[in-house]
Amino acid sequence: MKKNQLLPLLLAQLFLCISLTAQIEKAPPREEGEGPWSQLIIRGVTVIDGTLSPPIGPVDIVVENNRIASVEVVGFPGLDINPNRRPKLKPGGKELNAEGMYLLPGFVDTHAHIGGTSQGTTAEYVFKLWMAHGITTICDPGCGNGIDWVVDQKKKSANNEITAPRIKAYNWFGNSLNGERGRGDITTPEAAREWVRANAKKGADGIKFGGGLPEVMTAALDENKKLGLRSKTHHAQLYVGRWNVLNSARAGLTSMEHWYGLPEALFDDRTVQNYSLDYNYQNEQDRFGEAGQLWAQAAKPYSEKWNSVMNELLSLDFSISPTMVIYEANRDLQRARRAEWHESYTLPSLWDFYAPSKQSHGSYWHFWGTEQEIDWKQNYQLWMTFLNEYKNRGGRVTVGTDAGFIYQLYGFAYPREMELLREAGFHPLEVIKAATLNGAEALGMADEIGTIKVGKLADFVIVEENPLVNLKVLYGTGAIKLMEDNTVARVGGVKYTIKDGIIYDAKKLLEDVKRIVEKAKADANYEIVQPGMKGE
Prior knowledge:
This protein has helices spanning 3-17, 123-132, 147-158, 189-201, 214-226, 245-251, 262-265, 284-291, 304-315, 333-337, 342-345, 348-354, 370-392, 413-424, 428-435, 437-442, 506-524; strands at 39-47, 56-64, 67-73, 94-97, 102-105, 107-109, 135-142, 166-172, 206-209, 230-233, 255-257, 319-321, 396-397, 460-463, 479-482, 488-491, 494-499, 502-505. The chain is of the alpha/beta class. Strand 9 (206-209), helix 5 and strand 10 form a beta-alpha-beta unit.
């Protein structure tokens, strides 16, 4: 392998994992949550089941041995429930009164990094933020803490030894499988197949790619598919000129992350992004600033090329995890930086990581301005047009966040991604489906989670307000509402997150996170301030 061929591989691996190369503190033994019980009956709730069916209630849901045993309609809205219609509680069982509340399947985050040492996070901090927002399943794309570390936390979560979502581990292609830091150099098809087989033996559920030599990508995806594992790719610009989304999907990739590689597949009057001539990929303001001009260089919506690419992806049953939220600061930096949850829930180390930097990934605010934000607003319009039409034609779009970068906080980024799908044109029921069933299908888990159906696992989100009316009630900080007595109150926030039949008080989990942040601030004598304004 020539050095000039190897360099892009090393750079691509570096930029994705610069903050994720060392292990963070694992989650402590579980002290939170009530249960599980031999029987759990959730009484009087209104169900939004994740299948596009409209809400229905009041309903009693019976869980036995962590499986939904029955879903019983027990009355009509506005009328007293006849107790004779209700399923009976068995000895040793638990009743949860949820009358007037709304129940959804547990949320799935298809792009969820478990913190990083550069951000100064711990697994407990990250997991509790996710669980407090109803996220009961996540996919770690890259296993930046090491495959052994992630598989350990995955097993402990599956046994409910820790407070954490269930975890799918998609190891970064080329990651060391021997516990040491650094990455192997995979430059031949034979080496690719060998690594894929070894990765599966480690307990990985799939692979996260960033790109690679066409012959290497083809071999790795083929071997991965033979083993029955899944895959996702961030199509790094270092490779995308010769390997875009269509190449990946044809080779057997199951899901794409973000949108890199998709506009390039839609080029009809060029073969390469219109880079400025002094562009440097390692300068992230160059990279992200000019990425905001990329969709405008692609084929126009509903053109022959646009339709051709979309139809082929649909025929391949290809999933898209757009993670729009992680780039939203690009179109409105002030909004992202001053989100109301930062003060109480963002660790000071994470806040520092977000600040302008020449080396921290995603901290590219060297001099971000109006011109870049306008480009990105137009970028979003075209991107959202593709996503909405892909959904309309039967394509699978999921909810993923990539939080921990670019002023997006774990957990809180999730309802924001849902809001962005709504902005793209998704009906709120379609948003819920993206967050539940679509995510389950993309991860190969639709037989176990994703809808409210007899036989599936007892993973639920319960909220006191109707999220279809206002998705903002899913934020941990809730939504502001003018009450009947003309007072202003905060309403919503997830009430209960139920995973494997264990009931977690979501607001108590957030209180735990707040205490973690308060302690970190006290230890460092720290306060969150705007750059350049400390002491003013």
